[in-house]
Write a structure and sequence with these properties.
- The chain is of the alpha+beta class and 205 residues long.
- It has a single domain, classed as Gcn5-related N-acetyltransferase (GNAT) (Aminopeptidase), CATH 3.40.630.
- It is built from 5 helices and 8 strands; from the N terminus they run βαααββββαβαββ.
- Strands 1, 2, 3, 4, 5, 6, 7 and 8 form an 8-stranded mixed β-sheet that branches.
- A hairpin with a 2-residue loop joins β2 and β3.
- The chain is globular, with a radius of gyration of 16 Å.
- The C terminus is likely disordered.
């Protein structure tokens, strides 16, 4: 796929049809992302406050050939000391646009953006052990599989549009992938010029 056909941009008020679908249709966000019905009004409130982009994370719209097809999100996660942190990313594509390489390119763009606009040294992603499509997409985007672990009872929300709801179901297994700044050159030029410059946000050091 020509990577220029996939663009990431900030959300606008006209994109809320997508958030509404993700909030009530399990397949709109993907079976592995679904954690129950959500109140999209909370997303509207956050949009009004910060455009869904903050120093600790954000959500962008994925556009393919001028058509809105999904969202990508990122959030700050810390491991021990405040200085030991990285970005955790997720993606949510409408079902009709999966399996076409859009997810791989969108995540490459997002990683390039995060490394380009802040001091972070690592970007990681978790996905369900049975989500083979996302595992392949992450590997094609340059991520390295680091291991398998128990999934928390509160599933991560892809697209960073809302908090996940707790589940009493037995814990599933998930796979962790990581990408460091030292091998970010493998991304090539993906993501350069694909995101509106005004999206830049200050990052905590």
């Amino acid at each position: 796929m020509d990577e220029a056909r996939v663009v990431l941009r900030p959300a606008t008020a006209e994109d809320f049809w997508l958030f509404e679908r993700q909030a009530v249709e399990p397949d709109a966000g993907g079976t592995f992302n679904w954690s129950g019905f959500r109140d999209v009004r909370a997303t509207r409130r956050r949009f009004g406050e910060n455009g869904l982009i903050t120093p600790d994370g954000g959500c962008l719209i994925v556009v393919h050939d001028s058509t809105v097809v999904g969202t990508v999100g990122w959030g700050r996660v810390s491991y021990g000391a405040d200085t030991w942190w990285c970005w955790n990313i997720g993606i949510s594509l409408l079902p009709e646009y999966r399996g076409k390489g859009v997810g791989t390119v969108a995540q490459k763009h997002l990683v390039a953006y995060l490394f380009d606009t802040g001091p972070v040294q690592r970007v990681e992603a978790y996905t369900d052990v049975d989500n083979m499509a996302e595992q392949r997409a992450l590997e094609k985007a340059g991520f390295v599989r680091e291991g398998c672990c128990a999934r928390p009872s509160s599933a991560p929300a892809a697209g960073a549009t809302s908090s996940s709801t707790a589940s009493s179901a037995p814990s599933r297994r998930q796979v962790r992938y990581g990408r460091s700044r030292t091998n970010a050159s493998k991304i090539g030029e993906s993501g350069k010029g694909c995101i509106v410059p005004t999206m830049r946000q200050p990052h905590r050091r």
